[in-house]
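Entry 12.
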Amino acid sequence: MAAEPAAGAAEATRLSQKAERVGWAFVEQYYKVLNKEPSNLHRFYTPTESFFSHGEENGPKLPAVNGQKEIHNQIESLNPVNTFARLTQVDCQPTENHGIVIQVIGYLMQGEGPARKFCQTFVLTRIEEKVFHIKNDIFRYLKEEVEAEPLPKAATSAAAGEPAPAPAAAPSPAPADEAPAPTPAQPEPEPAAQEVPAAAEPAPAAAPAKAKAAPAPAAAAAAPA
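Predicted 3D structure (tokens):
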């Protein structure tokens, strides 16, 4: 009986690793097309079964569009020209029927405009062996939250009904000949931009679906078995 849970855990690990490889390869290809050929993004979706929604956090809830043609029109209305994505987080999980769910967090920059934080969730469905298309896509711009500075201890104590501590006596100044020279403040280093790591085992990405009215689709991408 102990062998069954072990086998189940091994299979779960295998599926998770495969989802990571396929998911990373798909993400790299998707955002590359967004940057280079945004008019071809609709080819990642199926002709009739895909859903796509786009909006902002706490903004008006817009209905999702369905099908490759409507998705193409929606993407074109957003005018995604000269758009570059800087990804900070990518998570992939296997789902039923060999599908994969992917959540992406990062920043989108368009032209000289400011970087805007976003979250995008994909559900990939396997059309045939080693070929995946987007079944569901939810995109949202996120609001940048500014953390409030903590109140001084005296203010928090007074608010809680506790007596505020008496201020400490100021130390006597050191003699001029003994006082150390002030050290110039060093600027805090800016955090380096986080780069998206390459997939552990490069795998072809999900291939765009062919549309009847669209130009010839890109080559189908394959995921490792």
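Annotation: The longest helix spans residues 3-36. The beta strands are 51-56, 65-66, 83-94, 100-110, 116-128, 131-141.
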